[in-house]
User: What shape does this take?
Amino acid sequence: MTNDFLADRRRALEESFFAKRNQALLEGLKVQLKKEQLAKASGICEDVVLDSLVDAGFSADTVAALSLAPLVAVAWADGKLADAERDALLEASSKEGISEGSTARELFENWLQEAPDENLVSAWKAFVGAAVDGFSEPAAAFRHDLIGRAKKVAQAAGGILGLGSISSSEQKVLDDLESAFPS
Assistant: This one.
């Protein structure tokens, strides 16, 4: 009886070990597949950048929302999202072609409900660093357009005293975004 008990216990431990190992391998395969799909959708092939995007919650279906990450970061710079900022973000999402009902739109709408963590801007900066050479328009024009749109969101809530100015917390985020581009 003791031998049967020990044999059963040994089998249970082995099965548990292999089940955990298989689960870890499966998770690794899922991450790899997600990275491959993300690479195809984004044109980015650098593992470090793809890891950053996956860690921030992006997939091939949501990478389109990445273009709005800087605007979202500016809007949440002071810890809250004003109605005017929300409206400016919704307008920007429409201009980016992020359609209602899409997975990218769902992710974007989550950012409107709750401030995303710092991984969002880190992932965006990694993406820009890897992709800036591949942009069809010059990097300077892209930088100018992006920072202009981000400033528009910052000014939407009125800044200090409602005068359309940019608050110091928003300016800090804008400066951080600009640092993602090569000088």
